[in-house]
Design brief:
CATH topology of the largest domain: Serine Threonine Protein Phosphatase 5, Tetratricopeptide repeat
Order of helices and strands: HHHHHHHHHHHEEHHHHH
CATH class of the largest domain: Mainly Alpha
InterPro entries: DUF3196
Number of strands: 2
Number of domains: 3
Distance between the termini: 52 Å
Length: 307
Amino acid sequence: MIEELIENGEYLQALKHLHDMNDETTRYLRLVCLIGLGEYEKARVEGIHAKSLAKETYYDVVSMYIMALKELGCYEEAIDLLIEELSMPYIPYQYENLFNTAYDEILLEKKEARYEVESQNQIFSVEEIEQLLNKKDCNEDLLYMAIDQLQQLNVRMLIPTIREYLIDPHKHFFAKTLLIEIMIDQQVDEEMEVEKFGQYYSFNPSYMPLVLEQLAYQGILKYLENALESENPSLFEQCQEYLEYLLYSFYPQEIDEMDFNVWAAAIHYYVATLLSIDVDLSELEILYYCDLEAIEEQILALKQVEC
């Protein structure tokens, strides 16, 4: 009967039948009803007690408790609880997914709430950034917001986590480069390794140039400039943007000066194709002083960033 009342949204009626506070199912159902009625403060108070006593209903109670904290704007408390639960050696799969989703949502809400009041202040704590970097499937908006904020923090506090992120082949190649650039800016003097497209590169941030300060950027851009700037300025701008994206994607792969023309030709062809512009590869051979086979090989290599 109580379940029927709850299903029908008759929470107040259901509460009248939920008095046995020694029964953990009763405590859980009371939380469902209080949340349904918008009585979030009461749900928070009861949730503390229900969580400490719950056994079979533990994860359901925690879910309701977190929902109450979220609705009350108690973001730090909710996040701390989620981090604690997600760090446990075992958590049922369905609740792990639920808590991961809740974590992302609460961080976003926290960010928006903070931004309204203190747009220039720190939104994420170091612990929250660490949690995001460690997550298997991270919301990309949250990830890039966290990396952006990391520029204002001491990145050395997260070096062990960043090391793991850089060598994990499942982490995003572009985000890896942004982390490397932050370490370059902060002159981190550490030997490190990064995985990019199945290849591993050793590097020390304190000796590395920023991505667009590499000789390759100006070298490849010069070839594109000579070929396109006066003939097709719009295509040239698109190629320049794509070149920057590629260099961020492949960094810290070194590009031999002898290959600058081949990269330029491949970028010209690839971007033109995306824009439905007909390009004759044999003409690119002449324009960029390189052979057809080299251009085709480079086009295939560039397509790795589509994955």
